[in-house]
Amino acid sequence: MADQPAGGHAPAGPATAAGPATAAAAGAASAKGAGAEYGVGIGWRPEIAGFVTELPGLRFAEVVAESVHAHGELPSGLEALLARGVTVIPHGVRLSLGGAEPVPGDRIEHFAAVAERLAAPLVSEHIAFVRAGGIEAGHLLPLPRTREAVDAVTANVRRVQRSLSVPIALEPIAALFDWPDDELTEAQFITEILDRTGALLLLDVANVYANARNRGTDPEELLDQLPLDRVAYSHVAGGAEHQGLYHDTHTDAVPQPVLDLVAALCARHRPPALMLERDGDYPPAADLRIELDAIAKASGYPAVT
Predict the structure, then answer these.
(1) Is the dihedral of CA 146, 152, 153, 158 positive or negative?
(2) pLDDT over 70 for what percent of the chain?
(3) Per residue in 120-136, pLDDT tens?
(4) How far is CA 116 from CA 19, 58, 293, in A?
(5) Which of 52, 198, 199, 239 is in the most buried spot, having the most CB atoms within 10 Å?
(6) End-to-end CA distance of the chain
């Protein structure tokens, strides 16, 4: 994580109603020194809870925020991680920060309550929309890179920040297409949102690779254009090609080009904490260990297995 990301003891400070300037300063302060401290982590999922709980060198994990009850008992796997001092970060998937409608208050309240329940030092969500006209898409959908979309994301992020006591990191998604009326490059779009909200960046290396491959561009060019000092932490995941397009599946092993991009990221800036994402078709524990060890090798971090 950018410098103080996932450490359950970082001072909460952030992006609140004080505004983007204060949020940016707080976010920068909470982004110091995290990579080496947190190293390589993994997304907690019920199907692999036992495996995650038993990882001896694990310092941080991530959980889908909407899968956690804000009050009452937590799933036993999460309780065990917290008892071990492992930092657990809530990762939202249903706020629809890029939607034209304001984020519903009950979703914001749940998001903030889960962060408090887990004593998380930050939270994360996507630069995307999942809802329009009252219809839930069930998928993360890409935004046109327009100034109107920047305004919409900014307004919704600020609404969420007013209920949070910790920083929020925003994740650009993998997309199979670009809208025809884009006004900004991807780097410009992301940077303007971060600047206007004071948010941190959740940089998904697999998304960078997928988008570049599908567009026929060099993924390292985006790394050179993004504010890497704002990276809170990074996702790493696998994918597969289907009908000429590369899909960010989270069900395939991390390919070598994504590991190479991890190394390229870590060579450009202090290595952030890196998190393996798997969301279905879970392989045997031995294969998960191989993936985690490969990420550690690419980044220079010690193995967590």
Answers:
(1) positive
(2) 88
(3) 999 999 999 998 778 77
(4) 21, 21, 31
(5) 199
(6) 20
What domains sit in the chain, N to C, each tagged with a CATH number?
20-299 (3.20.20.150)
Average pLDDT, integer, range 156-160: 98
Report d(CA 36, CA 301) in Å as an integer: 7
Residue 25: closest CA among 37, 16, 34, 38: 16
Q: What is the mean pLDDT of the chain?
A: 88
- 87-91 and 60-64 beta bridge pairing: parallel
Residue 203: partners with Cβ closer than 8 Å, 6 or more residues away: 171, 172, 226, 228, 231, 233, 234, 235, 265, 272
Rounded to whole angstroms, the maximal C-alpha distance in the chain is 49
- Residue 193 parent element (H or E): helix 186-197
Strand duo 240-242 + 231-236: pairing: unpaired
Please name the residue ranges forming H helices in 47-182.
49-53, 76-83, 105-117, 147-161
Q: At what angle do helices 256-268 and 285-299 cross, to 10 degrees?
A: 30
Amino acid 112 reads A
- Enter the DSSP assignment of 239: -
pLDDT tens digits, one per residue of 239-254: 999 898 999 999 999 9
- How is residue 15 written in tokens? 């992006």
Residues, the chain = 305
Helix intervals (H) in 203-254: 205-215, 219-225
Query: In this structure, what are the phi and psi dihedrals at residue 61, rounded to the nearest 5 degrees?
Result: -145, 175
